[in-house]
Amino acid sequence: MNLINLPKIELHCHLDGSLRAETVIDIARKEGINLPSFDIEVIKKELTAPLECESLDDYLKAFSLPNLVMQSKYSLRRITFELLEDASRENVKYMEIRFAPLLHTSKGLEVEEIIESVLDGIKDAEEKYDIKGNLILCCMRTMAPDKAFDIVEKGKNFLGKGVVAIDLCASENEGFCKAFVEPIALARQYGYRITIHAGETGIGKNVLEAVELLRAERIGHGVFIKDCADAYKIVKDKKVVLEMCPTSNVQTKAVSGFNEHPIYDFHKDGIRVTVNTDNRTVSNTDMTNEFNIVAKEFNISMEDYREIYHNSVEASFADLETKEKLKKYMKDK
């Protein structure tokens, strides 16, 4: 398989984990922001987590620098455009970008301005490249549930205009779903689709609760359903889609090595899996690299690739017209 030429769908990609190092330096200079260094190699190292992270929390340290340069409408629009531009160069035809608007308010931007700036960046890229983007709004599990209500309320005016879903992310503690039942229920009522980070750090039961309590349609990562029979069963029976990110999962110690990743076992057992980068810069990866890893470790066939691609199309929060267009890209492959 010539993976670089195949069409791709990415459903799990964090905006603040996918910045170009050159852009970080350029924005910092333009906006008078102090960086630890203006040396490109130093910044690249700061933005990238090592493969040998100690944990998810250790991995998340790489996000402190990007947020310094993501506090203006210009920077948010530019960074979003560049992410889609980079993705389009490896034949990503559709991607859902996710980010937490509340992390970008430190210089006075309103949540609505923040969301609008990212949507403008998506539109800029769509006009220039053969790629379609949508936006997922993240609520931080480390913040109080009333902050989630704030995002749900302020984001609802952008539903149907590029915002498609709500997510819960950040450090994962057991039983986190219970605190967010009400804001996620309100989001669902407004028309947001639901994807939840769960089962990334050894707590398979969080996936079960994300589906039962929050009615998650997709799960970010979900690795640890392998250790929780009830979570495994509900994901399989309800056809909940897993947004899997092999490199990130090795970095955060969700798995000890690529050969131990459960993605292919899940796939062969009928669980719907998708392949994603999670964070292109923090994980120093792209979609081609992620599929190369899966192909090398598990010897996937073209039929496997086609099935994962179609899983991704069907699981996407795109409209029907977009889904039909995406299916056509694989017809002659």
TrEMBL record:
<feature type="binding site">
    <location>
        <position position="278"/>
    </location>
    <ligand>
        <name>Zn(2+)</name>
    </ligand>
</feature>
<dbReference type="InterPro" id="IPR001365">
    <property type="entry name" value="A_deaminase_dom"/>
</dbReference>
<keyword id="KW-0479">Metal-binding</keyword>
<dbReference type="GO" id="GO:0016787">
    <property type="term" value="F:hydrolase activity"/>
</dbReference>
<dbReference type="Pfam" id="PF00962">
    <property type="entry name" value="A_deaminase"/>
</dbReference>
<feature type="binding site">
    <location>
        <position position="12"/>
    </location>
    <ligand>
        <name>Zn(2+)</name>
    </ligand>
</feature>
<feature type="binding site">
    <location>
        <position position="14"/>
    </location>
    <ligand>
        <name>Zn(2+)</name>
    </ligand>
</feature>
<dbReference type="InterPro" id="IPR032466">
    <property type="entry name" value="Metal_Hydrolase"/>
</dbReference>
<keyword id="KW-0546">Nucleotide metabolism</keyword>
<comment type="function">
    <text>Catalyzes the hydrolytic deamination of adenosine and 2-deoxyadenosine.</text>
</comment>
<feature type="binding site">
    <location>
        <position position="14"/>
    </location>
    <ligand>
        <name>substrate</name>
    </ligand>
</feature>
<feature type="domain" description="Adenosine deaminase">
    <location>
        <begin position="7"/>
        <end position="329"/>
    </location>
</feature>
<dbReference type="InterPro" id="IPR006330">
    <property type="entry name" value="Ado/ade_deaminase"/>
</dbReference>
<comment type="similarity">
    <text>Belongs to the metallo-dependent hydrolases superfamily. Adenosine and AMP deaminases family. Adenosine deaminase subfamily.</text>
</comment>
<feature type="binding site">
    <location>
        <position position="16"/>
    </location>
    <ligand>
        <name>substrate</name>
    </ligand>
</feature>
<feature type="active site" description="Proton donor">
    <location>
        <position position="200"/>
    </location>
</feature>
<feature type="binding site">
    <location>
        <position position="197"/>
    </location>
    <ligand>
        <name>Zn(2+)</name>
    </ligand>
</feature>
<keyword id="KW-0862">Zinc</keyword>
<feature type="site" description="Important for catalytic activity">
    <location>
        <position position="221"/>
    </location>
</feature>
<protein>
    <recommendedName>
        <fullName>Adenosine deaminase</fullName>
        <ecNumber>3.5.4.4</ecNumber>
    </recommendedName>
</protein>
<keyword id="KW-0378">Hydrolase</keyword>
<dbReference type="InterPro" id="IPR028893">
    <property type="entry name" value="A_deaminase"/>
</dbReference>
